[in-house]
């Protein structure tokens, strides 16, 4: 756990440093409200741990990790506008706090800071751009062409959540100067973890308590969103089992990676297990 605490502290320190440079003052306050309001920092941790697993250092990967966290935060601002959700991570969502226009500008500001961090490496920029295309397709699909079976749901989950997880791990591999085969294996690991994460998120929305979760529940049903328990025949228990199968596939993908740091790899294995057991 000490390793994770140090990595988390490194991420938080660099995140604050990046946000401190945002201008003007009004935008600075808005991006800080969004990006520093909590969160598990799962994606940047994946970036750092993936990098360390294949021989890089946390310092090599921290900028890319902070960048993917900023992309994720920007996407949540838009999600909350679409969902009309007034709560995010236990605090007021950006649009509810500042209004729709400032929230959209906040999302743009977060993306701008993110791509500044990726700009030193064309491969990193490409990976994140591809992930954002997938995310955009997923968000559009969710609004206009709701899936009505498990296969279509899985495609949506891959685009909506798996794509940014894949990018997070691939960024870590790129930071460690890995070969394309290693980049792909780590990407598959993380994509599957992301899909499992989304499925578990859907289950929690259906069955968890809002206070414990830190955000409103029952939202998927109320908004007729394509939750795994809404658009498939899977019960919450069945959906958890399906998520667990994705997590096992993630672990299989990780087995294809030549490991330089077994401790970092062990944390990636634990993450694959955690995403299907988490309660918030």
TrEMBL record:
GO molecular function: metal ion binding; prenyltransferase activity
Cofactor dependence: Mg(2+)
Pfam families per UniProt: polyprenyl_synt
Presence of keyword Transferase: yes
GO biological process: isoprenoid biosynthetic process
CDD domains xref list: Trans_IPPS_HT (cd00685)
Alphabetical UniProt keywords: Isoprene biosynthesis, Magnesium, Metal-binding, Transferase
Domain of life: Archaea
Family (UniProt): Belongs to the FPP/GGPP synthase family.
Protein name, as recorded: Polyprenyl synthetase family protein
Lineage: Archaea, Methanobacteriati, Methanobacteriota, Stenosarchaea group, Halobacteria
